[in-house]
């Protein structure tokens, strides 16, 4: 398949998407959105892929939505063009997605990372929602997902001032699960992704769906959903295999059935 702005490969049951617009610090124009969404959906449809990694370059995960592409638009253009609607499809893939962030993850770049399930950061990573400096606000989830990730007060400070934060601060705030040396980022992301991809896919889909519900529902409703999803896994071959393997003190051999 022909992608213009990303590099794509599958290795060890992991689908890799590398955003590749070095001339614009990986700014997310509409072609990047089309490419990333198409690649993620194609990995999602592939049973041979159990986890997806999205990454950028050493300098930038993504420095935001493409300012030059947006600059001349009217509000009507924004509504009718649905310029960012595709990202909702990216956020909806069932396969776990790991963001491996080095350099800038600003504006839409930070928002793209927050659409993923796990954020790993190089010690060079910088996160922020600087849209306020452009006379606008975050538009791909920044005011919503950042509040859920780091709490209202920290999110409000970042969104209202446009201040950027480094990897260590992002880890302390709970946005990032782990900070690693920049040189190790891809290898660490591969380890995490391959670990997830070694599990039984039905249970991985179920875990992601149940985790997603935690951000959307009341506790009572979320607990109900979790209990039903948990129960449904007892019809899988892999549940019998996983529990038999435990009893027989051997590693499980999952077949994604
Ligand atoms: C378009 C961008 C860009 C962006 C960088 N570039 N960010 N182009 N959109 N978001 C381009 C620059 O114009 C420049 O191209 C080249 O990439 C290198 O960037 P420099 O600015 O020269 O690099 P540097 O001096 O190292 O500064 C890095 C930076 C700065 C601090 C990250 O580029 C910056 O502030 N970028 C914008 C960050 C931002 O505001 N992001 C939020 C966007 S709004 P040329 O051709 O000039 O050399 C957003 C809204 C999301 O994301 C909501 C959507 C619904």
Automatic annotation (TrEMBL):
It catalyses: a 4-saturated-(3S)-3-hydroxyacyl-CoA = a (3E)-enoyl-CoA + H2O; a (3S)-3-hydroxyacyl-CoA = a (2E)-enoyl-CoA + H2O. GO terms for molecular function: enoyl-CoA hydratase activity. Its EC number is 4.2.1.17. Pfam families: ECH_1 (PF00378). GO terms for biological process: fatty acid beta-oxidation. It comes from the Bacteria. Keywords: Fatty acid metabolism, Lipid metabolism, Lyase. InterPro entries: ClpP/crotonase-like_dom_sf, Enoyl-CoA_hyd/isom_CS, Enoyl-CoA_hydra/iso, Enoyl-CoA_hydra_C. PROSITE patterns: ENOYL_COA_HYDRATASE. It is an enzyme of class 4 (lyase). PANTHER family: ENOYL-COA HYDRATASE, MITOCHONDRIAL (PTHR11941:SF54), ENOYL-COA HYDRATASE-RELATED (PTHR11941). Could possibly oxidize fatty acids using specific components. Belongs to the enoyl-CoA hydratase/isomerase family. This is Probable enoyl-CoA hydratase echA8.
